[in-house]
Design a protein that fits this description.
63% of the residues lie in helices and 12% in strands. By secondary structure, it is α/β, with parallel strands linked by helices. It has 2 domains: 220 residues; 118 residues, abc type-2 transporter like fold (3-Layer(aba) Sandwich). The strands form 2 sheets. It has a 5-stranded mixed β-sheet, with helices on both faces. The protein has a two-stranded antiparallel ribbon with strand order 4-5. The two termini are 23 Å apart. 36% of the residues are buried.
Length: 353
């Protein structure tokens, strides 16, 4: 612990930089600049409803998700939707012996009571679309009507999304950079070789390094969570000890990757680009600053299996949705698999000199 605390650069990168990023993004509140999250429940399942959905998907201000009624209502209450539209079964023309004719149909729109700006934008777009539809159908009579209803829901903000991402990023940076740089330096300066000449066993040396950094991970997670909750009003719906468990497992994964980098690199100049090659793609593709939903489909599939994605999604599920460890077992399993992979690589590449 004293060795680590004497390194002022390590202290800076471990605590100050993640805090600065948290404060900057929290103050700018980039999440308010996004689209309106619209969920559509298609009970009609016909050509008219398909056309309605296709036209909604073409509106740039809307982010459209198709789902079942129970699923979308729950998403609205949890704060994952700004607006939910339910297309009734009689939405669309009825075919009779005299031809196709529209019966009066009522579209139900449920909107987030705590997000007036997003809800009103979405409702305005819907009303405009319904008016155009009525004009095209009859010109006078209102065949399709829109009924809106406010729903009390969790008012999740961008900081609620950002907090797990920053925690995961900080854990990744600590595991990769602090281990790779410090051990490369100690190898280059012959410190490790001299330590091995003492009664200190290699297991004790490595164990102390790992335990020290895992303790720092806990403190780091506590500080970042406290800043997000008490300074920016982020919600914390889950169990904090479960979050610490995810942080510890994620820390173990990236510590093992850090040992692998330090084993391969001979100098700090070699360690820096290699650590950046590992960390930078995950920082921007694993859902740290923005949702992975905006990524192309093939890229989403790739990022599903990144270690930082498993860590961030596990913490986000527990802090935002209040999930238990059991509910996030797939993400914990993913981190465990990555730990085994990273441990094998580190075991094969790590050298004392």
């Amino acid at each position: 612990m004293r060795m680590w605390a004497r390194d002022r650069a390590a202290l800076f990168w471990t605590f100050f930089l993640p805090l600065v990023i948290m404060v900057i993004f929290g103050l700018l509140n980039f999440g308010e600049l996004g689209k309106v999250d619209l969920g559509i429940v298609d009970l009609a399942q016909n050509e008219a409803s398909a056309r309605f959905i296709a036209e909604a998907q073409q509106v740039e201000a809307l982010r459209v998700v198709i789902g079942g009624e129970a699923e979308e209502r729950a998403a609205l209450v949890d704060g994952q939707r700004d607006l939910v539209v339910i297309l009734p079964q009689n939405f669309g023309p009825t075919v009779t012996s005299q031809g196709a004719d529209w019966e009066p149909a009522t579209i139900q729109a449920l909107y987030h009571a705590g997000r007036q700006a997003e809800s009103q934008v979405g409702l305005g777009i819907l009303r405009s679309g319904v008016d155009e539809m009525n004009f095209a159908l009859s010109g006078v009579d209102r065949v399709v009507t829109l009924e809106s209803e406010a729903v009390a829901a969790r008012n999740l903000g961008y900081i609620d999304f950002l907090m797990p991402g920053i925690i995961g990023m900080a854990i990744m940076q600590l595991g990769l950079f602090s281990v790779s740089f410090s051990f490369v330096t100690m190898k280059r300066e012959g410190v490790l070789r001299r330590l091995l000449a003492t009664p200190l066993s290699p297991v004790t040396l490595l164990g102390s390094q790992v335990i020290t950094r895992l303790l720092v991970v806990m403190v780091q997670t506590l500080i970042l969570t406290g800043v997000a909750v008490f300074l920016f009003g982020a919600e914390f719906a889950g169990n904090f000890f479960a979050v610490l468990l995810a942080a510890a497992l994620g820390g173990a994964v990236f510590l093992a990757l850090g040992f692998a980098v330090s084993g391969w690199a001979r100098t700090e100049q070699q360690a820096a680009p290699l650590a950046n090659i590992v960390s930078l793609p995950m920082m921007f593709l694993s859902g740290v600053f923005f949702s992975r939903d905006v990524l192309p489909g093939f890229l989403q599939v790739v990022t599903d299996y990144l270690p930082l994605t498993f860590l961030v999604e596990a913490i986000r599920g527990m802090t935002v949705q209040g999930d238990s460890v059991a509910a996030q077992w797939t993400n914990f399993l993913g981190m465990a698999v990555w730990f085994v992979i990273a441990f094998v690589i580190a075991n094969r590449t790590f050298r004392w000199e």
